[in-house]
Amino acid sequence: MRAVTLQEVARHAGVSQATASRVLNGSLRVPGPGVAELVRKAAAELGYVPNAQAQALARSSSGLIGLVVREISDPYFSSIARGVQRIAREHDRHVLLSCTEADPAGDLDAVTSFISLRADALIMVGSRFIGRRAHDRLLNSELKRYTEMGGRMAVIGQATPLANSVVPQNREGAAALADALVKQGHRRFAVFTGPTELQTAVDRTVGFTEALRRHGLEPLATVPSAFTRDGGFDAARRLVAELGLARGGDGLCIFAVNDVMAIGAMAGLRDRGLRIPQDVQVAGFDDITTVQDHVPALTTVRLPLESMGETAVRLVLTEATRGGARSTTVVGEVVLRDSTRRR
Predict the structure, then answer these.
(1) For residue 261, what are the contacts with CB-CB under 8 A and spacing of at least 6?
(2) Would the pTM count as exceeding 0.70?
(3) Lower CB density within 10 Å: C or N end of the chain?
């Protein structure tokens, strides 16, 4: 079926094409109510469907928010995305999602695409990579160009002067977890550090190990791995071989720097015949939605993930953000559960 044109609507309503465009495409320069009603009635009678690009030009707004995450299947990112979507919907905005799949170049590709689509705002979720200076220069240049054109930005992760920031206290949360575990009576620890080039993983590792040192303790092992369930699984199998862990041993508490790694670690330990928490104890970080349902339930540091997404949207949509970048700090809460229960 042939699409009805704006020119046909204008002719049917007896107005100019420019007037019809202002009414139907959402321009701030709308004619009087009588004329606007004539145009809308003509559009309805002819079955006219407005063009999204024309609406964006008329409003100087596309109504789009670009959301960049590393991996949507990870409950950390999907929970944040849920919060973003909820507040965006309240403000009649649509969210476009891009997953970088842990590719450091993926965020640059996503940002470039969202700019070309004239997204009103960008929200980037995830840790900064360490030692990617050339990439960072390109990304920062693109983001600077975007904000100079009037685009708004927020990041969830590490603070940056280029954008509003929602910053979880990763180092402090990991330190609080170490203190709580020592208070429970744990003295033997291992740390699954995640990737050594990922800033979030480094911050959590440093926070935990520095807190242990304040108690006169050192990890028996630090095991780098992927920031995934499989990364935790493989790290657990390597640790069992390295330390010769066995049933009825002296006990060991593993801190995995995120919950999906901790869940993988528990599976890897069971694969080697070890029981949790009887033989080995495990703790994570984030408090993703599934960890309470695991047996045993996982000790972790709770971050308000959906609330973090909501905050990021409010930062990019609020008039006050035009005055300069703002940073909101998010404090984690230690939640002790059965996975670290002492024998």
Answers:
(1) 192, 194, 225, 227, 228, 229, 231, 232, 235, 284
(2) yes
(3) N
Asked if pLDDT for residue 318 goes beyond 50, the answer is yes
- Going by pLDDT thresholds of 50, 70 and 90, the confidence category of residue 51 is low
Domain positions in the chain are 6-59, 64-168+306-331, 170-303+334-340
Token representation of residue 228 = 């995934």
Matching fold, domains 64-168+306-331 and 170-303+334-340: yes
CATH 3.40.920.10 fits 6-59, yes or no: no
Question: Is omega for the bond preceding 277 within 30 degrees of 0, making it cis?
Answer: yes
Which tens digits make up the pLDDT trace of 103-151?
767 788 888 888 878 888 999 998 777 767 777 788 888 888 788 777 8
Rg (the chain; Cα; Å): 26
